Amino acid sequence: MKIGALSSSLRKPFPVMLETYARMGLKGIQVLAEPEFLVADDTRLAAYKALIDQYGLVVSAVCGDVCRTHFSVALEWEDRVRVHKHVVDLAAKLDSHIITTHIGVVPEDQNDPVYEMMAKSLKAAAEYSASRGAVLAVETGPEKAETLCQLLDDIDSKGIGVNLDPANLRMVACVDGAHAVKVLGKYIVHTHAKDGINIVPGSPAAAYGIIEPDGSRRKFAEERSQYKEVPLGEGQVEWDSYLAALKEVGFDGFLTIERECGEDPEGDIRKAYNFLMNKLA
Q1: Rounded CA gap, 255 and 279, in Å?
Q2: In 10 A of CB 88, how many CB atoms?
Q3: pLDDT tens, position by position, 103-155
Q4: What DSSP designation does 55 have?
Q5: Could you tell me which of 61, 280, 266, 57 has the C-alpha nearest to residue 164?
Q6: Exposed, middle or buried: residue 281 (CB in 10 Å: 0-12, 13-18, 19+)?
Q7: Looking at residue 140, what DSSP letter applies?
Q8: For residue 74, how many other CB atoms are within 10 A of its CB?
Q9: Of 152, 178, 198, 227, which one has the greatest count of Cβ atoms within 10 A?
Q10: E strand or H helix at 168, and its extent?
């Protein structure tokens, strides 16, 4: 497995981020499709790619969490798919074929109207991805691994996969990362290396929120799950069993460090890199 980091986690300008990550010894970056990328023409994207190449890095994936519309809303899903297609085309110009995104909460009931809308919209996005030799990698988080696996099975497309984030699973849904790997193994194309702690067990769906097909927010009687992200190795993710499970299913892609908070992102990313290197040695 290879170690990379999310471009936005360092919170520094793009060239500085590349130089810093290369100096650390990282092998790749996951690019967040920020506005500067979304509006860039081919010449500008080629310049970004040349700079990435200059530092000996590759684009492990492109993060496509860039849309205000939702896969689950009847009047919005077509626009959400349109934006996804644009990110697929952008990723190809950066020589990457994995587009990660959050899709919202997948209901356990296959007859739930949100489930049905998600299956329809994600099928359209996945089929376009497949036509470009790309994969829409759904990020894990609020639902059980079995629930997400059922949805992906129902979509039944070569263009659908999983970006497995063990911290989201552990701190939000209290799901063990190794178990999730065993359930979702055939779909895993990319991972996030992050850690977290569940403070108060509760409803992951209430914590994330569910958007109904009419655009309203679902109301929950249950208390929301409470959690926090912490530096890698300081949380509840069982890294030894998780990494062993990834090896067992044949995953040899990127462990992409993600740090969404903290006062010292560079220090936390360096610590995460050293932690993972020791685990992989």
Answers
A1: 12
A2: 26
A3: 999 999 999 999 999 999 999 999 999 999 999 999 998 999 999 999 999 99
A4: T
A5: 61
A6: exposed
A7: P
A8: 15
A9: 227
A10: helix 166-173
Give residue for tokens 């552990």: 170
Round to whole Å and give the CA distance between 265 and 273. Answer: 12
C-alpha–C-alpha distance, residues 132 and 97, integer Å: 8
To which H or E segment does residue 139 belong? strand 135-139
- pLDDT digits 0-9 by tens, 146-199: 999 999 999 999 999 999 999 999 999 999 999 999 999 999 999 999 999 999
Domains along the chain with CATH numbers: 2-280 (3.20.20.150)
* Whole-model pTM over 0.90: yes
User: What phi and psi values does residue 117 have, to the nearest 5 degrees?
Assistant: -70, -40
Residue 63 and residue 6 in contact, taking contact as beta carbons nearer than 8 Å: yes
> 111-149 burial, b if ≥16 CB within 10 A, otherwise e?
ebebbbbbbebbbbbbbbbbeeebbbbbbbbbbbbebbb
Residues 152 and 142: their CA atoms lie apart, in Å, by 15
For residue 7, the tally of other CB atoms under 10 A from its CB is: 24
- Residue 77 structure tokens: 């899903």
**Residue 264: CA atoms inside 13 Å, Cβ hemisphere, count?**
7
Assign 24 to helix, strand or coil: helix
CA–CA separation, 169 and 141 (whole Å):
5
Ramachandran angles phi, psi of 239, nearest 5°: -65, -35
